[in-house]
Amino acid sequence: MQRPGPLLHLAVIALLVVPAMLLWGHPQEPARAATSGRRQTITLDEWTTSPAAARGRIVYDEYCGGCHGTAGEGDGIAARWLNPLPRNFQKGTFKFRSTPSGQLPTRDDLDHTISCGLTGSAMPGFPLMPSQERRDVVEFVLHLVTYGLARNEVEYLMDEEGVSLDAIRSENLAEIQEEMWAKVATTTTIPVPTAPPSTPELIARGKEIFDAQCIHCHGATGRGDGSSSYALRDWKDAEIRPRDFTTGVFRAGSTPDDLYLRLRTGLTGTPMPAIPGSADDIWAQVHYIMSLRDPTAATPWVPSGCGGLDPEEVR
Ligand code: HEC
Ligand code: HEC
Fold first, then answer.
1. Atom from ligand 2 closest to the CA of residue 209
2. pLDDT of 295
3. What is the maximal distance between C-alpha atoms in the chain?
4. Dist CA 268 CA 265 (whole Å)
5. How far is the CA of 167 from the centre of ligand 1 (A)?
6. CATH class of the domain comprising 200-314
7. pLDDT digits over 15-55, tens only?
8. From CA 73, how far away is CA 81, in angstroms rounded?
9. Cα of 78 to ligand 2 centre, how many Å?
10. Which end of the chain is more exposed for a tag (fewer CB within 10 A), N or C?
11. What is the pLDDT of residues 280-312, one digit of tens each?
12. DSSP-assigned letter for residue 30
């Protein structure tokens, strides 16, 4: 029998590969990035870069792009297998901050996330990365954030106000640039007062608040199995479960100070709200939550992430 010629081979490869590429995108360029790339808009390359962000981009391409995507849209090659999904930096939504809801995180917040990782998610910690490289990659993350927010603004001007891209480039871009970086510069941090020691009274007060405000999500015993816990969705419409407090493992640090901030700020982009009330009410809940840890839990308690330790000491 005659062997199939090279043309037949090519046709077979095309039949197999082309639909796969249409569905999932080329490995280097996942489908979502390709789609957004087609939109006529400002490009990442024309968004002014600081020398630190330019250095950070090299670090990012090496260690972060595989999950967070080349342009930071949370669509790296590994993203499709992950829940929670890697953050889409262009949306500017961050869960773990020391800043009020609606604000961007501080550079220190981002540095903490990168050093310590987010325990219980795929986000690894990079405590051994030289601090200069971490600081640089923080700048590139902020570069992606400000670019994404600016792109929204540009697309709004084009779609809603009928301004051409060329006109925006020559007349509005500098101002938009200033406006977006002002969001980075004007963040305010929530002060964390000194934690009072845990007492039975404080824990009882915490339980009272918890039973009234939290159990429909976190469950009566704090296992994350409240009546509405199975129906919760995050901002990408992915399934999300409330934290199980009996494990004692928290995503961005397990010290009372870490938990104080998580309650005060809420986890933006998830159903976990910012909790109102006095500092004492928040401490009461923090101590109650910490008292729920099951000492016989399979997971031994470790200060998750860096747990409030100085990242330099974790090396
Ligand atoms: C193996 C995949 C993976 C890699 C590699 C990775 N990340 Fe992540 N990252 C994630 C996931 C998943 C999340 C979301 C976790 C969550 O929602 O709780 C995340 C979240 C984040 C956040 C958001 C924190 C917040 O407050 O919302 C930042 C910032 C971040 N990553 C930075 C980086 C940087 C910088 C690098 C490279 C140095 C990196 N990541 C490498 C998977 C990864
Ligand atoms: C509408 C549902 C909902 C309510 C109400 C709610 N939570 Fe949550 N909570 C969540 C979800 C979902 C998560 C997990 C978010 C994630 O994985 O990103 C969470 C996470 C947490 C965390 C973990 C933070 C970390 O670093 O891992 C703490 C602590 C917490 N909630 C405390 C509370 C307390 C205290 C209350 C009540 C005052 C409360 N929650 C009310 C849904 C809720």
1. 38
2. 82
3. 88
4. 8
5. 36
6. mainly alpha
7. 443 443 333 333 333 334 444 546 899 999 999 889 999 99
8. 15
9. 26
10. N
11. 999 999 999 999 998 887 665 554 456 545 545
12. E
DSSP 230: G
How far away, in angstroms, is 262 Cα from ligand 2 center?
Answer: 8
Q: How many whole angstroms from 72 Cα to the centroid of ligand 1?
A: 10
Q: Which atom of ligand 2 is nearest the CA belonging to 234? A: 12
Task: Return the domain boundaries, the chain.
Answer: 44-185, 200-314
In tens, the pLDDT along 206-264 reads: 999 999 999 999 999 999 999 999 889 988 778 899 999 998 889 998 889 999 999 99
Token duo for residue 189: 């941090």
Q: Three-state SS for 134?
A: helix
Please identify which residue in the block is written with the tokens 């954030």.
Answer: 145
DSSP letters for 15-83? HHHHHHHHHHEETTEEHHHHHHHHS-S--GGGS---HHHHHHHHHHHHHTHHHH-TTSSS--TTGGG-S
- Helices 131-161 and 51-63 cross at an angle (nearest 10°) of 100
Q: Candidates 2.60.40, 1.10.3470, 2.30.33, 1.10.760; correct CATH number of 44-185?
A: 1.10.760
**Atom nearest to 120 CA in ligand 1:** 18
